[in-house]
Amino acid sequence: MRPEKESSDERATHDCPGPRFLGRCRPLEPGPVLLVGHSYGGAVISQVGHAPNVAGLVYIAAFAPDQGESPGGLTQAFPPEAADSL
């Protein structure tokens, strides 16, 4: 997280390191790679899945957001069945 200041209130925005991280890993693995994401990791691999050396994405009990969606938005739209018990 990195702080973003706007007038007098403080806010934090998520610093998405996925593309930078994949850029550092690309020289280590020259061939096509298969990215696997579990839980929130599904949202992470969705962000970098378009890279030319990514052969595919595997989601294991993971969020699989479409472009413009977020895990939080998906959870609000489709709350877990046990949410009423919380």
Concise description?
The protein is α+β, with helices and mostly antiparallel strands and 86 residues long. It has one domain (2-85). It contains 3 helices and 4 strands; from the N terminus they run E-E-H-E-H-E-H.
Folded structure, characterized:
This protein has three helices and four strands. It has 86 residues and is of the alpha+beta class. It has one domain (2-85). Strands 1-2 form a two-stranded antiparallel sheet. Strands 3-4 form a two-stranded parallel sheet. The chain starts with a strand and ends in a 9-residue tail after the last helix.
Helix and strand arrangement:
Blueprint: E1 2-6, E2 9-13, H1 18-25, E3 33-39, H2 41-48, E4 54-62, H3 71-77
Parallel strand pairs: 3-4
Antiparallel strand pairs: 1-2
- Strand order within the widest beta sheet: 1-2
> What is the C-alpha radius of gyration, as a whole number of Å?
16 Å
- Give the helix level as a range of percent: 25-40%
Beta-strand content bin: 25-35%
E-strand count: 4
How many separate helices?
A: 3
Helix/strand structural class: alpha+beta
Separation, N- and C-terminal Cα atoms? 28 Å
Mean pLDDT: 76
> What form results from the Cα inertia axes?
elongated
Q: Tell me about the largest β-sheet.
A: 2 strands, antiparallel
